[in-house]
């Protein structure tokens, strides 16, 4: 049975909702899925999984501090084990998915893309096949103006139930490419 790991950081619950929708989709497609937060994922080895999914909200163009610290620690761990090679040759059967939640009240998707690209690099260096980067529009908690007057329009309630169903479906379809 193929396996997947989902590690996510969530400040307000938006990223957690997405992580759980991804979990449901992967399980529906037959994967055995482990879900963790960065603070409980220190002992995991990415290479034990066929698919590693990491997700975080975008906070000022970066993942959360918890996710950033986790990714850096894992990279250092894998470097010490000799798993980072010059030219980052692809490792067969090792795949990654990065997902980022964002509200982007100022510049929209442009606020999230740097966080996703940053997280992707941790897996590029290991030689993982980057399956995709998903950017999910999400409500900005605690600020009505940023939810209704930002570049993305009225984003209250995002990700919606319909958005989460689509994410689940996309996760299920992703498994066919592993």
Structural notes for this entry:
The protein is built from five helices and five strands. It is α/β, with parallel strands linked by helices and 178 residues long. It has a single domain, classed as Rossmann fold (3-Layer(aba) Sandwich), CATH 3.40.50.360. Strands 2-1-3-4-5 form a five-stranded parallel β-sheet, sandwiched between helices. Strand 3, helix 2 and strand 4 (95-102) form a beta-alpha-beta unit. Helix 1 (14-28) crosses helix 5. The radius of gyration is 16 Å and the shape is globular. It starts with a strand and ends with a helix.
Supply the key terms.
178 residues, alpha/beta, Rossmann fold, 5-stranded parallel beta sheet
Sequence-ordered SSE layout with sheet pairings:
Blueprint: E1 3-8, H1 14-28, E2 32-36, E3 51-57, H2 65-80, E4 95-102, H3 113-124, E5 129-137, H4 144-148, H5 161-175
Helix pairs in contact: 1-5
Please, how many domains? 1
Can you say what the CATH homologous superfamily is? Flavodoxin domain
- Kindly name the structural category: alpha/beta
Low-confidence stretches: none
Annotation field: number of helices: 5
Helical residue percent?
A: 25-40%
Going by CATH, the architecture would be 3-Layer(aba) Sandwich
Shape: globular
Number of DSSP strands? 5
CATH T-level fold name: Rossmann fold
Can you describe this structure in just a few lines?
This protein has helices at residues 14-28, 65-80, 113-124, 144-148, 161-175, and strands spanning 3-8, 32-36, 51-57, 95-102, 129-137. The chain has 178 residues and is an alpha/beta fold. The chain has a five-stranded parallel β-sheet, sandwiched between helices.
